[in-house]
Specification:
oxidoreductase activity, alpha/beta, 15 helices, rSAM
């Protein structure tokens, strides 16, 4: 008989006279009596009744003492590389110029300089080569891409996309739609969607996203969204969650008409750049995530984009096996060219010369980081954001996972 041990890739949570087990590689979620868990901890496997023993073995909570579990992750990474879709998300920044003065902007230290024609030529040559190898969506980013000074470049990009049958997505503050509407209509066939940020109801939004002369922007953006809606352009509402709207965001996504009529994606404003290092953090991020997630469960058009949460819920609820979160933010599928033609693999790292990538094929995974490969939370947290140096990540992530699991338990196993 093999000598067995308890897997290290597991979280256990006491629940009355039971112990809840969650396997962080395979996503198994099970409940066993405390007495059985004590036997496992003490290595008293012969005392465990066959039914429980077979469950623990088949669900991989028990593993061979000679088994190197880290090699399991590495083999799954090989599988991930084979089967993942070879789709790149390509971003293009004409400049870092913007007509807004958002209080949480991480690009305030970047401004000026418009992309030169010869630089754009080289980028389009590169995109043609990428197009020959990958399917991709071209996302126009900033700064703010919809500035009048970018009109000619927008027209050129749309013509290029039409010729090669490339879809174009525009991430915009939504303030200057009208001057471009006829251009959008002309190239409607290549426009995938508009992603427009609204951080809450009018008073909340106008406290975070203001013009350079400190005027509110909500009403005009709402009018421009209606303009795009009337022409049947797909619009996604994006909301950034920070200290200014943490107590109002749930009310906004549940009750505002914009959130009822459009798909909504919510993101946290992370303190990743030095510019935001002194910014206060949300009072209780995990509790807020739980509240928002309950709204998302009721409304299919609303999604909270937070990789560890998305990974956990997929592992628990999907019928098929979900591979670990090898790439926290999908940066291995992103390449961003700024106005200098310099490539980056992250929208928040653009302009930071420390994060220039040398080759589009460069790939990095949490398994490249020894402490993350050995950590039982690695398959869920994916190593976290590469820009955020958090020495307390293990404690914070485990507390987060436990609280989310407790929510799942209350919802699904309330009869115990």
């Amino acid at each position: 008989m093999k000598e067995l041990k308890l897997t290290k890739y597991m979280i256990s949570i006491p629940h009355n006279e039971y112990m809840v087990l969650f396997h962080t590689i395979y996503g198994y979620l099970d409940i066993i009596p405390n007495s059985v868990f004590s036997m496992i901890k003490n290595g008293e496997f012969s005392e465990i009744r066959n039914q429980d023993y077979e469950l623990l073995l088949s669900r991989k909570y028990l593993t061979d003492t000679k088994q190197n579990e880290e090699k399991i992750l590495l083999s799954q990474l090989c599988e991930y590389k084979k089967i993942r879709k070879r789709i790149k998300n390509v971003y293009l920044v004409f400049s870092y110029n913007c007509n807004f003065d958002c209080i949480y902007c991480f690009e305030q230290d970047k401004s000026g300089n418009q992309i030169e024609a010869k630089v754009l030529d080289k980028i389009l040559e590169r995109l043609t080569l990428i197009h020959n190898e990958f399917d991709f969506v071209l996302t126009l980013y900033g700064g703010e891409p919809l500035l009048i000074e970018n009109y000619a470049n927008l027209k050129r990009i749309f013509s290029f996309a039409l010729k090669l049958d490339i879809r174009v997505r525009i991430i915009t503050n939504g303030f200057t739609i009208k001057p471009f509407l006829n251009l959008f209509l002309k190239f409607k066939s290549v426009l995938e969607e508009f992603i427009i940020t609204i951080d809450g109801n009018e008073s909340v939004h106008d406290s975070t996203r203001i013009t350079k002369n400190h005027k509110g922007t909500f009403k005009r953006i709402r009018e421009n969204i209606e303009l795009l809606d009337n022409e049947s352009f797909p619009v996604i509402i994006r909301s950034n969650i920070g200290i200014e709207n943490e107590y109002k965001i749930v009310e906004f996504i549940e009750n505002n008409a914009l959130c009822k009529d459009h798909n909504v994606k919510l993101y946290f404003v992370e303190n990743n750049r030095g510019l935001l290092s002194n910014r206060s953090t949300i009072s209780d991020k995990t509790e807020l995530i739980k509240r928002i997630n309950r709204v998302c469960n009721k409304h299919e058009n609303i999604e909270l984009v937070y990789p560890p949460l998305n990974q956990m819920l997929a592992m628990i609820y999907d019928d098929n096996f979900v591979l670990p979160l090898f790439d926290y933010c999908n940066s291995n599928s992103i390449i961003l060219y700024d106005y200098e033609g310099v490539p980056y693999s992250c929208t928040e790292s653009c302009g930071n010369k420390d994060y220039i990538i040398s080759d589009i094929q460069d790939e990095h995974y949490f398994t490249d980081i020894p402490k993350c490969l050995k950590c039982h939370l690695g398959p869920i947290c994916g190593g976290g954001c590469k820009l955020k140096n958090n020495k307390q990540c293990k404690i914070e992530m485990e507390n987060f996972i436990i609280q989310i699991l407790q929510d799942v338990i209350e919802k699904n196993f309330y009869e115990i």
